[in-house]
Amino acid sequence: MSQYAYRNSDTSDTVPELPLSLSHSEVVQEQCNDVSLKEIFERVLPASEISNVATGYFLHNSLLIRKWVPVSEDGVKNDVYQIVFPTKFCSLVLKVAHDECGHFGVRKTYLNILKHFFWPWMKRDVSAYIKTCHVCQLTGKRNQTVKPAPLQPTLTVSEPFTHLIVDMHGSAAMCQVWL
Q: Model pTM?
């Protein structure tokens, strides 16, 4: 027996639902057409053999699913069933997992997606998406400190009223009162 506790579950109860407004047939069709998934389709196992392997691919109602058994921190192994997503729909998953879930960093976004979905080069895609996120670029990270700009010497005036500096703010309404 293994040093890890192991929980096996029925695949029909644990296959994740499709997100967003995607239909089952759309995803199945795109999986079949996606060139990046061709190699994965060649490694598909029969459903009867999937319970014997830690990581493998199988078809469930024509949908390509990945079985993966990660080891948690407490040493418990749980079967995780992930929908293998075609490249065409990866941007939808990234948008939901990052933009609509709090703009987490690469690690948290990747782990959240990994709970339900998989595609080749997923970590690279998550990292690239987050690096180009406009909101994240503007706000930065919580633990990120921006160093102040270095001090620059300022010019000093030798005589009073040699320069007149006026601060303006937008268009002021015309009025007859002097302030």
A: 0.66
